[in-house]
Amino acid sequence: xxxxxxxxxxxxxxxxxxxxxxxxxxxxxxxxxxxxxxxxxxxxxxxxxxxxxxxxxxxxxxxxxxxxxxxxxxxxxxxxxxxxxxxxxxxxxxxxxxxxxxxxxxxxxxxxxxxxxxxxxxxxxxxxxxxxxxxxxxxxxxxxxxxxxxxxxxxxxxxxxxxxxxxxxxxxxxxxxxxxxxxxxxxxxxxxxxxxxxxxxxxxxxxxxxxxxxxxxxxxxxxxxxxxxxxxxxxxxxxxxxxxxxxxxxxxxxxxxxxxxxxxxxxxxxxxxxxxxxxxxxxxxxxxxxxxxxxxxxxxxxxxxxxxxxxxxxxxxxxxxxxxxxxxxxxxxxxxxxxxxxxxxxxxxxxxxxxxxxxxxxxxxxxx
Length: 368
Ligand SMILES: NC(=O)c1ccc[n+]([C@@H]2O[C@H](COP(=O)([O-])OP(=O)(O)OC[C@H]3O[C@@H](n4cnc5c(N)ncnc54)[C@H](O)[C@@H]3O)[C@@H](O)[C@H]2O)c1
What we know:
Blueprint: E1 4-9, H1 13-23, E2 28-34, H2 38-48, E3 52-53, H3 56-61, E4 67-70, H4 74-86, E5 90-94, H5 101-114, E6 118-121, H6 128-139, E7 145-152, H7 159-163, H8 178-182, H9 184-194, E8 199-206, E9 215-223, E10 229-235, E11 243-249, E12 252-257, E13 260-266, H10 270-276, E14 286-291, H11 300-313, H12 321-340, E15 344-345, H13 350-362
The structure holds nicotinamide-adenine-dinucleotide.
Nicotinamide-adenine-dinucleotide binds near residues 11, 34, 76 and 165.
């Protein structure tokens, strides 16, 4: 079988983990490792017995790779991806695709000119529970969705965590907080499940619980053009955290909590009861439906395998760079709404968000 030759740029915590996942993929092979920290690049390159590079330009000139997996701090996703496309190299970026929508659009421009494949690492898409949840939404079994409520606070982070990388939790180094670092998977699943809202009003607390510049607590309210409303709550300062996605719909309530799916199904449509019931406080019959899910396994190997297959057989990556824009846009819109203290309409004005972000970058404590 022909194998895609993969280079990994950025082999800190997650780059090393993805290297293990890449090693398990049958249709690609790791052929180079790159990190600006020489000792880090050398150490990981030795593990895979491949050459080490200390800047992505020389890696891209080497002729050793067909595709690059970018696992650096977020701002560098944009510059490295644009350089890769210009060098005729396929790109899979770790999440988030970029720090802000305007940067993601720059990446998309470079991608379109290149004719190469552009994927993003959203490995939670491979979870059977998430796939089942999506299938149920699409089955029509639930009736019309009325309200969505996602509380995702399972990320207690200490000051030591934020201090562990000098780029972390600063506007200049990282470009955002819980929305950009911890929540991209959930925001991606949110848009995959429900599509994009058209209005966002959010309240982001910056450095409320930690000595950091960026948001560590968020409450966002969203509206969809066809009626449903949604609340998205996150925090990096709670224990025990909650991960509960609750969807109310015409046929009851579907919940995905900690990987377990449950559906409390009403015998009749709630909208019909509201319109026609002779009672003023009706009590409805419901069935408890437990929905079996084979496992909660999440596979970065699958994301990489599908990406390599997309290159080999001209197919689509599991999550394309284009689709990855949506979750970024949601997070950006929440932050923009909070900064401007007003409702923000989607599609987001990318230039406006970049301007607001750059004001924060200008006073950021982090110096490159
Ligand atoms: N997919 C996931 O579930 C998941 C989980 C955690 C982190 N991540 C993402 O992985 C990325 C890296 O996070 P991390 O926690 O591994 O950070 P990290 O600080 O542990 O590692 C980043 C590495 O990138 C290197 N680096 C920085 N700039 C570089 C450049 N220009 N060229 C080459 N190397 C460079 C650093 O030296 C470091 O070794 C982030 O985008 C983060 O959001 C994804």
